[in-house]
Amino acid sequence: MEELFKVVVIGPESTGKSTLSEFLASYYETMWVPEYARQYIEELPRSYEQSDLLVIAKGQLELEAERAKLANRLLVCDTDLHVIRVWSEHKYGECDPWILAALAERRYDLYLLTYIDIPWEEDPQREHPDPAMREYFYNVYKEIVQSSGIPWVEIRGSFEEREKAAVKAVDQLLLGTDQL
Length: 180
Known about the structure:
globular, Rossmann fold
């Protein structure tokens, strides 16, 4: 069985993660894992609460496992449990131990960290349009990928520049080079 490489697109809100994830899946003719939280919150008849984050985390991992079975050598993830942990700790001051334990067990092959250099797009599920908060979250995610021990590449610029940088990084991963 061929090895499955897992790439996570990570970064603050409204930095093009979903667009890039969908592009990469199309480019490599494989599957991508959308952010489970988006669908879950959209269908929730109330505002989300801290307990919902555990449900979201489990749903994200289930969706990832389903899509992995259908993937073609590469699985592109439009988030990982780091995002849920960061959100939980920022909003509630703590994170569910199950999420932390699951996070410690997860292994990915590459992080693509999206920068805050594209305009904010309003969305009812987005909470932090303030430039200072966008920069704060970017720095939090940058610290996560830097300390992860996993190769990572910063993705910035126009959509075309982002796509080109992401493809270059994924190609290097798939070819087994460590020139990231």
